[in-house]
Structure formats: structure tokens, C-alpha cells
Design a protein that fits this description.
Helix content: 25-40%
Radius of gyration: 13 Å
Largest sheet: 4 strands, antiparallel
Strand order of the largest sheet: 2-1-4-3
Number of helices: 2
Number of strands: 4
Structural class: alpha+beta
Number of domains: 1
Order of helices and strands: EEHHEE
Strand content: 25-35%
Length: about 90
């Protein structure tokens, strides 16, 4: 699994990166997803966002989801943070 993340402020991408799954061997889908999301947040130096049920639905339907600035426990320098899932072949 690979997870791409990007931050958008004022309609422009201000930061982007892709991370590969580095979870423990035999980890489940949720654990691998969380590991990738936390790696993106660490690289961007932002707190982990609050995961809402709408994020689960979006990710399941279209392979990406957006976290609004309000979903972070601390102020962030962007309007939203988007993640996109890339499954390995």
C-alpha cells in the first residue's frame, strides 16, 4: 500500500508526499493505513486529523478522502489535507 498526501491552501498545493506501507508484517488493512497516515503527518509536521465516518466512506468509494482544517486539534497552515490510496499490484 502507498498513501499520497497533499495540503492545499488558497487553491494551491503547498505540500505533497507519498509514503509506502512500513507496518509490521501481517498487519491488517486498518493498521497499514494508519501507519501510512501517521508517517505523512509526521513528515508534514502536523497532528493526526480526527477520522470521521465520512472519511471512511470517501476512501472506500473513491480511494481518497479530505480532512478539513477543523478536523485537526491544532491550527494548520492549509485549508484541507487530502490523502489518496494507491494499492500495490
Amino acid at each position: 500500500m502507498r498513501l499520497a498526501g497533499r495540503a492545499v491552501a488558497g487553491g494551491k498545493t503547498t505540500w505533497q508526499m507519498t509514503v509506502a506501507d512500513s507496518g509490521p508484517p501481517g498487519a491488517g488493512y486498518g493498521e497499514r493505513l494508519e501507519s501510512c497516515l501517521l508517517a505523512l503527518c509526521k513528515a508534514a509536521d502536523i497532528p493526526a486529523p480526527m477520522w470521521l465516518s465520512r472519511n471512511t466512506g470517501e476512501l472506500a468509494r473513491v480511494g481518497k478522502t479530505t480532512f478539513l482544517a477543523e478536523q485537526f486539534t491544532e491550527p494548520v497552515p492549509f485549508d484541507f489535507f487530502e490523502i489518496r490510496l494507491h494499492q500495490r499490484s
